[in-house]
Amino acid sequence: MPSPDRTRNRRGALATAGIYLGLIIAAAITVLPFVFSIITAFKSPQNFANQSPLSLPDPWTFESFQAILSGRVELGRAILITLGTVVVTVLCQVTSSVLAAYAFARLQFPGRDAIFWLFLSTMMIPGTVLIVPLYLMVAEAGLKDTFAGLVVPFLLASPYAVFLLREYFRGIPQDVIDAARIDGAGHLRILARIVVPLSTPILATLLLITVVSQWNSFMWPRVIAGNEVPVITVATASVQSQYVSNWTYVMAATTIALVPLIVVFVIFQKQIVRSIAITGIK
């Protein structure tokens, strides 16, 4: 008869194996569409029509990528515009979010908590509800079909970013802040020399979230600029409508749009894991 310890260990091993099996299945379900997209992008239109959609390219070809990047579709221009919107938005939004979060976390002023929770309550408003008023304001300002119209509504701090940073800043020991004040440091110096360096993991996570949200933004760029100032999502949608029967072109455009996000994730993956671990411990 097996001992209780051996039975317990066997049950634990089976439970662990079941968890890993479930994670593998979930990962496969998540990754397979991207694999299918990449495989299709490296096929020629003739091979895609004659072969099984799940078969490997035979031969591998860059024909679809060359067609997309050769000028038939303004994907290169769309990538540059998207990079510009991401850089401008991320710099302004993260900077203003850091300043606002520090004020809510460390400064004392009348109505601080009430203002913070009022600001945070705007997260409950669906983004689609704001499309019409934002469009009217931006159009009245003469920014329709311009690069400025794409970025102006998103330059200031976002409620989610302020909330995330405020909670993290509040976890920094007060003794460290007091020691800097004794040495004569002001708020800006404390923020730049102490708070921001100690918050690298959470800032990296916020940076990635902001980059992904701006890179994948479709509704607002489509409404305010359309094909006049196209971003990568709008250009990819135009490829799909233009080459509706040629899925190799569509998948090539989709693969090109995915590459920068994968690069950003690979660069910041360690900081993201650290931020999740620190948040979990807190």
TrEMBL record:
The chain crosses the membrane at residues 12-39, 78-102, 114-135, 147-169, 190-212, 247-268. The keyword Disulfide bond does not apply. The keyword Transport applies. Keywords: Cell membrane, Membrane, Transmembrane, Transmembrane helix, Transport. Residues 79-268 form the ABC transmembrane type-1 domain. Coiled coil: none annotated. It comes from the Bacteria. It is a multi-pass membrane protein. It is found in: Cell membrane. Belongs to the binding-protein-dependent transport system permease family. This is Carbohydrate ABC transporter permease. It comes from Microbacterium gilvum.
